[in-house]
Amino acid sequence: MKIVLSILIWVAGFIITASAFISSLVIKIMPFPIPNREKLVHAQCFWWSDALVALNPFWKLKVEGLENIDPSKTYVIVANHQSLADIIIIYQTHMYFKWVAKKELLKVPFIGGLLWVNDHLLVSREEHGSIKQVYRKAAERLRSGVSMLFFPEGTRSDTDDMGEFKNGAFKLAIKEGKPVLPVYIGGTREAIPKGGFIFSTRVSGRLAVLPPIDVSDLKTADFGKLRDLVRERLESVASAG
What we know:
This protein is an alpha/beta fold. Helices cover 41% and strands 15% of the residues.
């Protein structure tokens, strides 16, 4: 029974993701003016996320702290990273943002397409200067009022413990004077089967948006203090369950 149910989940997920990509692409390439075109393209990921979370009977997701988001403000969003499912779940915030993500994600069917059509910033570790170029573009987006989302661990953590946080997002937040919005993601490590396709583990996921951290009094040299503060707050949410 789990095999049949898993096949249905994968097929439905594929169709939903393909539909979100196609709708996003159509809106993007329509040859006439559309108000807030980029935000409308981005919003296709909202119903995509809602549908994927709702259709999977193995997933149960608790969302908290949405009141901490001020739609009129621009943030450097910082989230811990456990699973590919985090990309789906983060859209439950219904925020407009751009990712800084690994270029390898373009290879994931249709999810890569969604990253591409939304003009997210993609980092290639093999290309010299790619990281610096991406951070320059991220700074430009922040100045234009677009929030930027980072996984400061750089990759998915192999354990329930958070990996080491890289410094880039925190330096950028201080330099551009944008508040940091910490987002905790928990329980997603087993959300997508590893080494197979059968969903067999019921997952209780959690998405918690923490109060933003003001950086106006910080200097660039304080990035380490900011990094440690964000990590401490995310870990306190994790330990509190």
